[in-house]
Design a protein that fits this description.
This protein has 637 residues and is α/β, with parallel strands linked by helices. It has a 21-stranded parallel β-sheet. Helix 16 packs parallel to helix 17 and helix 21 packs parallel to helix 22. The longest helix is centred in the first third of the chain and has 12 residues. The radius of gyration is 28 Å and the shape is globular. The protein starts with 5 loop residues before the first helix and ends in a 5-residue tail after the last strand. About 9% of the residues have low confidence.
């Protein structure tokens, strides 16, 4: 019957609520759009959709930030996962000075949220908030603005609205929220007893806030205190004394007032801790040893403590036998003895990251490779004393290796990859950056032995050329991601071989200056599934290449073609007519692209989210039409 509502009559609230939850369970932007569409069906659907919405991502900057959080809490009381980030901007009136020239680039960014909001007309923030909430901030808990002006971002007032409106909150992320203090956290602790995850990255939170969280949120499992500068030992100790039993993950970085005393408390009160990330200049051996003795279930450990040495890692190897992932960064005081202890005690190690560990030699990796047979991922960055033998040990003793990353390892030579090719047939990802002694022969060894390779990334591989690519093409038929940044010996022949044999989805050819239109034509005809392409700094490619890419790569979503002096508006027109899925385009310093070309991209790409271009190439009409997607390099120059 025309006009009759047959669906609502047949569906009880419980069943419709279950349908909406299933729609939202898909995650991603598609699920969000589907929920928004459901909310527009009728008032009943909108009411139930609001009651079932579980997550939201919000901006924290702008004069209306507190009001936005209040409206969110009122309309979506069932929220369990909220992320607030001051690096986003509110897209409403007064949302961070969109009209100010000084913040032009910031105001043009597109803001993504996971809920629909309508603007209320004539809302007076002062009148709306006065008399409802009384907030007395803790003294000295928060730094004042450098210029003495009132902050235009989320404050404790907005956080209080969230705490009182969404008392079922389980996960809360406050990123770079510079005006949040302990007062706001006290409100969260008083109202959100189910909180299990709290991220306070780069917030200036004092000790009273952390102590309150410890007392009020006994179920807290995950805590991120990276760059929380206002916290001292008193705050962290007070927190872990109250909720340390439930804590399984803790991250602390650049908290200048935290010392070994905090880690002693963590070791004493957090027996179930499984993941610890610690970056501090003040932590010594004693603090790490306390954690090792008290947190014996530790599985993931990331350390950047220049004051710790061999004794600290000896304790980790002795007491943390369940350790699976170890990352050591910028250590200046430990030697091969440390990794020997890790190798003896941590037989379950699967992931090892060594960044700028200057005193480690080949012996370290020999100890680990011989003892840790489950090793699957290895990253070595800037360990300049490691030579070819280090990698040979990995090849001989670690048959389950899946990922290998070598960054600035100038002493490792081609012969190391002979062992990797022979012993690590399961290798899927290989990253080589600034490894000056590695040439075509090394990659030929990899190609012949590691036929399951799906990702290969080489940056500044000045000795890598077509011979390596041809071997990769012949042997690695599953390769999907390839980066060849500034590999200046790579030419059309190698690229054509890859295009013919490998189902590439992502390709970075930035700086490969021997590549011409012919090579990109072969690529476009052989790789129809390409979604990402970087052809920046290819100075001899022209419009023909873009026309072929437009015709042959209809799934392309991201392209970078900066510093391509021969590309013109004509080529851009051919590109965008075929690549209708394009979401991101970078094209700065292309001297023959004009404002007409920029307008063509904007008008043809309905899904475009970001366009990086010189500001002077954007006409006023284009700016009005597509302001949110425009990003400018060297604004004002």
């Amino acid at each position: 019957m025309r006009g009759a509502d047959l669906i609502n009559v047949a569906l009880p609230d419980e069943l419709l609520d279950d349908v909406l939850r299933r729609v939202g369970a898909g995650g991603g932007g598609g699920a969000k759009r589907d929920l928004d569409a459901c909310a527009l069906v009728c008032r009943r659907w909108r009411r139930l959709e609001r009651a079932s919405r579980r997550s939201a991502k919000l901006a924290a900057s702008g004069a209306r930030a507190d009001e936005v959080l209040r409206l969110v809490a009122e309309r979506f009381p069932a929220l369990a996962d909220v992320s607030v980030d001051e690096r986003r901007t509110v897209g409403a009136d007064g949302g961070g000075g969109a009209g100010a020239s000084g913040s032009a680039s910031r105001s043009r960014r597109r803001v993504h949220s996971t809920f629909p909001l309508r603007r209320r007309r004539g809302v007076s923030l002062r009148a709306d908030f006065e008399g409802q909430i009384s907030i007395s901030p803790f003294p000295l808990d928060q730094p004042s603005g450098d210029d003495g002006t009132e902050r235009s971002c989320l404050t404790d007032l907005g956080l209080t609205h969230l705490a009182r409106g969404c008392q079922g909150l389980e996960k809360l992320s406050l990123i770079w929220c510079s005006s949040i203090s302990s007062t706001g956290l006290v409100r969260i602790a008083e109202n959100c007893k189910k909180l299990t995850s709290l991220d306070l990255q780069a917030c200036y939170i004092g000790d009273p806030g952390l102590i309150a969280i410890g007392e009020g949120c006994k179920l807290l499992r995950n805590l991120n205190l990276r760059f929380v500068e206002g916290t001292t030992d008193e705050g962290l100790i007070g927190l872990v004394k109250n909720c340390g039993q439930s804590l399984v993950s803790l991250a602390v970085a650049t908290c200048v007032w935290l010392t070994d005393a905090s880690l002693h408390a963590v070791g004493t009160h957090c027996p179930n801790l499984k993941a610890l990330s610690l970056e501090s200049d003040r932590i010594q051996n004693g603090g790490v040893i306390s954690v090792a003795k008290g947190c014996r279930l530790l599985e993931t450990l990331k350390l950047q403590c220049i004051g710790a040495g061999d004794d600290a890692l000896d304790a980790i190897g002795t007491f943390c036998s369940l350790l699976e992932s170890l990352s050591l960064n910028n250590f200046e005081r430990f030697t091969d003895r440390s990794l020997s202890s890790i190798a003896k005690g941590c037989k379950n190690l699967t992931d090892l990251v060594l960044n700028d560990c200057q005193l480690l030699t080949d012996r370290s990796l020999e100890f680990v490779a011989r003892s840790c047979k489950k090793l699957a991922r290895v990253k070595i960055n800037g360990c300049q004393n490691m030579e070819t033998a280090a990698l040979e040990h990995i090849g001989r003793w670690c048959p389950g290796l899946l990922e290998l990353s070598l960054i600035y390892c100038p002493r490792i030579q081609n012969s190391a990859f002979l062992e990797i090719g022979r012993g690590c047939s399961l290798l899927r990802s290989l990253y080589l950056v600034d490894c000056s002694r590695i040439s075509d022969d090394a990659l030929c060894h990899i190609a012949q032995g590691c036929k399951n390779l799906t990702e290969l990334s080489i940056r500044r591989g000045y000795e890598i050329g077509d011979k390596a690519l041809i071997s990769i093409a012949e042997n690695c038929k599953s390769l999907r991601e390839l980066t060849l940044q500034f590999c200046e010996r790579v030419s059309d022949a190698g690229l054509a071989a890859i295009a013919e044999s490998c189902p590439l989805q992502k390709l970075n050819l930035c700086g490969c200056q021997l590549i011409t239109d012919s090579g990109l034509t072969a690529l476009a005809r052989g790789c129809p599934d390409l979604v990402f392409l970087d052809i920046s700094v290819l100075r001899i490619i022209g419009d023909m290449a873009l026309a072929e890419i437009g015709e042959g790569c209809p799934k392309l979503k991201e392209i970078a073609l900066s510093h391509c002096p021969e590309v013109t508006d004509v080529g851009l027109g051919h590109l965008v007519r075929g690549c209708l899925q394009l979401e991101s385009c970078q094209m700065v310093y292309c001297r023959q692209i004009t404002s007409a070309g920029v307008a063509t991209v904007i008008s043809s790409c309905s899904k475009l989210k970001k366009l990086l271009v010189e500001e002077w190439k954007v006409s006023e009409r284009t700016r009005r039409r597509a302001g949110p997607v425009l990003s400018f390099l060297c604004t004002g120059l």
